[in-house]
Amino acid sequence: MGPDGARDDAMPHRFMDIKEVAQFLGIDQRRAEKMAQRGQIPGQKVGGQLRFNRAAITEWMQQQMHTLKDDHLDEMDAGITAGRQIQADDLILTPMLTTSGISTSLPARTKNSVLKELVALAGKTGLLWDDQALLEALNQREELCSTAMDGGVAIPHPRRPLPYAVAEPILVVAHTTGGIGFGSPDGGMTDLFFLTCSQDDHHHLHVLARLCRLLGDGKLAPGLRRAETAEEMFQLIRAREIELHEKSRN
What we know:
- The chain is an alpha/beta fold.
- Helices cover 44% and strands 14% of the residues.
- The strands form two sheets. A five-stranded mixed β-sheet has the order 4-7-8-6-5. A three-stranded antiparallel β-sheet has the order 1-3-2.
- The longest helix is centred in the C-terminal third of the chain and has 20 residues, at 230-249.
- It starts with 14 loop residues before the first strand and ends with a helix.
């Protein structure tokens, strides 16, 4: 919810000033100001003042997330946690996971079939209301820019929140037995997928930041690839998220 009680996703096209951008992205205002001055944050002059479109900021950040350094991701994660008024030690990803939404051997060999199978996996959670809307949104996002990252990982997600398509925010995790060409920046194959779909943009960015933090040290992905059961994959993610919290407190 916003400060006035309105849903965050109900205001995707409104303009924000630099202070609001910093709060939305969970970063220090000075960092946001420097980024804006360098033209690193998309904005425009309105009445002689820099203003930032919320939807454009969300789209820009989700494309940039995987390129952020660890300290930036840490700051962003902590800042969004505070902005969403949740406890600092609350788990974000684990409550979104169920073993029914995890696959150790997703039956897919092409990019299109991966997206279809991920949506089918999301349907098994019982939280997906409109599978066709989600699939179309995923394809549109991939056409804009691949969600693949270096290291054989991809995080498919819609460009915009889909509050009408899901009962609750969804996260499904899948490993394919063979690598798939998914448009990774390093030109490598992708075999580990995290599909996420949220009901508001602030939660969406929080999930992406937390995922990138978990994957950043290069330990989680190999463990997930070795896992033999959905329960084992679930416990690996849970343990890593708890470890991340403990590290942040020290």
